[in-house]
């Protein structure tokens, strides 16, 4: 596996363990939390609710003060003052706290917690060659389960409720363990999976046997955008279109990737459109920005990863002026942690530093929009998540501002981005189920997960 295939998913993975369910191969069973009854919830007396719906509250963030949020049948039922609790509903006191939609991470590689802190002096190619590739080649299904689960605990703790995870091809038993970890976590997840070069039926099989088994799971097709791989690009984009899902590729993360002429490859493959999500998009020309915007291509912005690897800084204000839909992504180990508050703050701060202006896009409300409804729009899920609009899935968080890093109150909206830290997220609900309560992740034994990940790391790295 070389640096390009590691990044873009062109390698050919062995298909060991690839027997179908009918022949006794690995199978997947959804978590009990998805099949049992879930109680209605009334979140009472929040000081501020950011609904992300201007029809409910005021401004871009749909802000409401002194309000309740009622969850019924796993969905947001109502936002308002003095709501009545249905019989048997659980009451959650949000006095003095903020309630908002959960964060949406539109580009990640959760398994990469397996080499956190590694290759810290490397740029992208060296990081891939010395950390990413050797670790991925050595991982076992059991090890990948614990590393993925470790990352899930981390992202949930930071208030993420939906994560898009980009996967290179891997043996089928690895996919089974990967899905098992994602399911156990309680996250809503989108798996961007790659077809094996020898088996174009792999992604449809994953969709049939794994994704369709979990109500919180969705699918994308992962691939590459290079002229040298134009045939594979056409096949992958065609597979995504046939399945009715998005196509997800890395695009111009570094300047030297221009040698592969990726934007031309997307154009010639007919893969420019709202069904394509392009990660990074750091080194686009003005003409390419206009081309992507004209075809409604969606973009994942990964500022912490780009900064860590010295890849460059996205021309975010220009993409915004072109009307491109953009969400925020953490991008695996190159993000170093899953602190979504740091991700938002960096997205704001980098542009201010480059432009030497404080009013440049994204301003504070705009980055909060990108983190929630904007992210949902980027991945085509804004009809289901991203705001507290009644009828949408009850994916929401409660933020406690009464801590040394957050207090005293002045402008809570700004403080969310500039002062917030993962420990301020006291509660997380995904699909109406409480997966973090009073600061503790409930869906996973965090101590056991850390211990098992440490054990797996010692086996990998010595």
UniProtKB/TrEMBL annotation:
An example molecular function term from Gene Ontology annotations: hydrolase activity, acting on carbon-nitrogen (but not peptide) bonds
Domain Amidohydrolase-related stretches: 98-435
Keywords assigned by UniProt, alphabetized: Hydrolase
Domain of life: Bacteria
Name used for this protein in its record: TRZ/ATZ family hydrolase
One Pfam short name: Amidohydro_1
InterPro entries for this protein: Amidohydro-rel (IPR006680), Metal-dep_hydrolase_composite (IPR011059), Metal_Hydrolase (IPR032466), MTA/SAH_deaminase (IPR050287)
PANTHER family xrefs: AMIDOHYDROLASE-RELATED DOMAIN-CONTAINING PROTEIN (PTHR43794:SF11), AMINOHYDROLASE SSNA-RELATED (PTHR43794)
């Amino acid at each position: 596996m070389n640096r390009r295939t590691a990044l873009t998913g062109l390698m050919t993975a062995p298909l060991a363990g690839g027997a179908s369910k009918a022949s006794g191969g690995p199978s997947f069973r959804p978590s009990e939390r998805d099949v049992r009854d879930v109680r209605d919830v009334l979140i009472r007396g929040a000081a501020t609710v950011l609904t992300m719906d201007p029809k409910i509250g005021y401004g871009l963030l749909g802000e409401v003060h002194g309000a309740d949020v009622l969850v019924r049948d796993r969905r947001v039922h109502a936002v308002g003052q003095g709501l009545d609790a249905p019989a048997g509903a659980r009451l959650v006191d949000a006095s003095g706290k903020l309630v908002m939609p959960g964060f949406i991470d539109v580009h990640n590689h959760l398994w990469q917690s397996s080499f956190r802190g590694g290759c810290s002096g490397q740029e992208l190619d060296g990081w891939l060659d010395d950390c990413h590739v050797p670790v991925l080649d050595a991982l076992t299904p059991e090890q990948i389960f614990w590393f993925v689960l470790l990352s899930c605990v981390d992202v949930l703790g930071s208030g993420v409720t939906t994560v898009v995870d980009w996967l290179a091809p891997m043996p089928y038993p690895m996919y089974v363990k990967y899905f098992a970890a994602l399911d156990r976590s309680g996250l809503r997840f989108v798996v961007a999976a790659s077809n094996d070069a020898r088996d174009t039926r792999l992604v449809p099989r994953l969709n049939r046997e794994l994704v369709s088994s979990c109500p919180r799971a969705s699918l994308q097709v992962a691939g590459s955008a290079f002229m040298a791989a134009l045939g594979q690009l056409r096949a992958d984009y065609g597979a995504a279109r046939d399945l009715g899902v998005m196509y997800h590729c890395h695009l111009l993360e570094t300047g030297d990737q221009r040698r592969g002429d990726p934007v031309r490859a997307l154009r010639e493959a007919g893969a420019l459109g709202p069904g394509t999500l392009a990660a990074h998009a750091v080194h686009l020309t003005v003409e390419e920005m206009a081309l992507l915007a004209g075809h409604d291509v969606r973009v994942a912005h990964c500022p912490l990863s780009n900064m860590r690897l010295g890849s460059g800084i996205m021309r975010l204000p220009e993409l915004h002026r072109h009307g491109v839909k953009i969400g925020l992504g953490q991008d695996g180990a190159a993000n170093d942690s899953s602190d979504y508050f740091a991700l938002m703050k960096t997205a704001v701060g980098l542009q201010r530093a480059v432009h030497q202006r404080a009013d440049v896009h994204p301003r504070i409300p705009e980055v909060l929009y990108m983190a929630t409804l904007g992210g949902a729009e980027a991945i085509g899920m804004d009809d289901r998540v991203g705001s507290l609009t009644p009828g949408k899935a009850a994916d929401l968080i409660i933020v406690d501002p009464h801590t040394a890093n957050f207090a005293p109150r002045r402008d809570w909206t700004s403080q969310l981005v500039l002062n917030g830290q993962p420990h301020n997220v006291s509660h997380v609900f995904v699909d109406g189920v409480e997966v973090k309560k009073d600061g503790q992740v409930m869906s996973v034994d965090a101590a056991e997960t850390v211990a098992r990940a440490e054990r797996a790391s010692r086996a990998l790295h010595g």
